[in-house]
Amino acid sequence: MQRLDKTELIFKVIAYTLVTLFAIAALYPFIYTISAAVSSRSAFDNGLVVLLPVEFQMDALSGVITDKGFWIAYTNTLFYTFFGTMFSMAMSIMAAYALSKSRLVFRSQINFLIVFTMWFSAGMIPTFLNYKMFGVDFRWGIIWGFGVQAFNVILLRNYFSGVSKEIEEAAIVDGANEFQVLFNVYLPMSKSALATVTLFYALSRWNGYFWNMILVNWNVEHPLQVFLRRYLTEYLMDENASLTDLPYSPYSYMYAMIVMSIIPIIIVYPYLQKYFAKGVNVGGVKE
Amino acid sequence: MRANRDVKLMSHDELKHELLLEELEKKKWHRYWQAIKKDWPLYAMLVPVIIYFFIFRYMPIYGIMAAFKNQTDLTLGVGDAPFSGFYAFRSLIAGDYAKEFWQAFRNTFAISMYGLIFGFPVPIILALFFSEIKSDIYRSITQILTYLPKFISTVVITSIITLMLYEGNEPHQSAGILTTLFTNLGVIEEGTRMMKEPQYFRSIYIISGIWEGAGYGSIVYFAAIMAISPTNYEAARIDGANKLAQIRYVTLPGMAPTLTIMLILRIGEILSVGYEKVLLLYDASTYATADVISTFVTRIGGLMGGATVSLNTAASADLFNSIIAMFLVLGANFISRRVSDTSLF
Prior knowledge:
By secondary structure, chain A is an all-alpha fold. Chain A contains 14 helices and no strands. Chain A has one domain: MetI-like (MetI-like fold, Orthogonal Bundle), CATH 1.10.3720.10.
């Protein structure tokens, strides 16, 4: 290793310091959230919780765990995420596979049809009216109505285009049909791209709020995000919320719900973040 | 006489030519048909997605008509409502809704511009710092931590922001932790309702946006920096360049293409302020600085529950937004393709 010049050393010190600070800043609100969820009422109400839990209690968390409404919303979110992602992936994989074939007739026209939706959208009001017209206002409707994102199809298509043609030809010589080629050649060779796109779809389903809230009329079909939001605006921000007689603060209850809602993400995050990073770099590709 | 014969000859040739073209055309369609028949599984795979895009991305274009119709209720059909012509556009640009609309328009630009000025450099600087960290483990950990907020839903992020900036309800409930911090630092006066004062909205929106997105945004710049050959730095050091000179003459030129594309694409998105986050953070008391075109549309159109105020006004604002946004994105892409041979589409 070469000796560092003085400015290089200073820069390195600054870099380490600021990166560390930024990482702490990124993490801190989540630590605080957990601490607030498990601190006692008097500690939280008097503003004593700063970083770590004060006067530990689990009542807020167990309150959330026994809250029926919360679990209905949670199950809905699981439903939207699981079936939504499966559906989106099936549609996108098939389309991307077909579009990656140069022998496809009208390939560029179909491509344009899909890419055009990335430039122009009819807008919120027409989209809303259209969704209503097609009955996208219940569970399965949401799955179907928000099925495909053009960007993800393009991302997969680009990846499929790069898959080696020799193996495909060998499979065809061996008598494989189109579906067998897709399942036995393309999919095993595109694991990282598939993981990236699955992650994008799953995240947008898990975190989705706006359209679900304005389209779905039944509270029992609303996902977690809508439930959390409703608790915050309709209950917590009410002046009287803090006057209840619970062993924990209603704020701790909110924080406990947040904790429960992000646990699955925190668990899968370390394994999936590399695909997330990959998606960004594949994103800037052209046709 | 001679001229006459020429004409005749010409038309005869033309006829032959035309017939030939027709034949070719027929053959072409026949060939297409044969290709589709032979490859039918491939086309079958495309059908669901084409239907999807037709129904959910192209059919709504018909609903743009709502801007020119006098529809009073979201639940009624667009087609049946009586026409109102450009009435809604006029009321938007110079009529009853003009004040609110132009305010939303200005806010959209202001929020985007501040977001660009303050938000654009941070991921670049962060990527520069990441590239300085030679310990792989430490760098990975800090990187993973800084991407984390991007994984978390907007509802959760905005809930945490709202709770941390809560002004409190003394003596029952102390103020949120950030409000307490700012009060102690003397940034704000005691009892300030940060979420209810228009003057704080943009700072809250932009700073939280940087907190959320800078780590994720740094990925692409980090990749660009890593692609620069270490020998360039060696050469610069031998020439006696200090760290700042190395950044100025090696790092920045090396990542210039990435910088250019990202900047252009970002400018192309200037009208698409993340409306979900604005919706979740603003309320009636902060419209003056917070209301953007999309939130104006949802409110006037009655999408967020409340009564529909004026559907055609909302749809007009929506259309206005879509058209300008399309030109900005297309323009940005065109320039990006010209400048660097790379584009999003």
